[in-house]
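Technical note accompanying the year-one report. For the benefit of new consortium partners, we illustrate the data format agreed upon in the data management plan: each record pairs a sequence with a structure-token string. No post-processing was applied to the example shown here.
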Amino acid sequence: MRRTAMVLLTAMAVLSVPMLSSAVITCEHFNYGPAFLPLTGLGGGENWGGAWAGYDNLSPAYHPDAGLAYSASCYTNAYDCNDADYGGTVHQSYRGAPRAFPQALTGTIWVSALVRLGANDSFRGFTFSNNELSFGFGINSDCRTYIYFADCDTAEGGIEHSTDDVHLVIARVVIDPEDEGVDIVSVWVDPDDTCSGEPGLGEAEVELDGCDVASSWATLMFELGNGSNLDAIRVSHGNDACLEDVLRCPPTNPVERSSWGAIKKLFR
């Protein structure tokens, strides 16, 4: 009886001490104030390895009126971490803007972003890729999701997305530096169920696997089409990376989770 009471007290103590998750949230919400600015050199957001690079007059630019907001039951812009009264990014030309992650990413990586597609008939979508351009994903000039693996394969979704509306784009990127042919990218746009975790997303709008084109993802490169806006980039990476991390605003402190594994060990 005494041992049981001690175990229960110890379990309560474990529960009361938060354990830090190994997931890291890298995000950029483009809140740079009231003036139009080149994106190059801006360094806001959280958990990046440096500022945005690129070309002052050619890469995407910050615009105070380009902020985007999206309404879905389990996607939130709460706590002003993505205030639509501030800004987002706009097209200047077709040069990309790279920004380094805090370290090279491998394993499962979740990404979300908000995009409004312009009505211009030229390229009007967006692309996220790595700095080597060996893989990428986004929405193309036909307003369809697409994925490419350089020198391997390309896939395009069957849905033509509307212009001038705000879309939530979610991607899962799996990079395995050890096994060949297992790099996978899956993309969803405006999924019906964002509240039931990964199973709720259902079948990806477009998915491509079986290629081996990257040993890691060290730099986020993004290109933005004519007339389009992009905002609220969120990337969850690390051992506990998950969909939920990119649907809500990142916490000020690392995610705290109680260690049930530690509790179970007490009863063995």
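Partners are asked to follow this layout when depositing records. The chain has one domain: 21-255.
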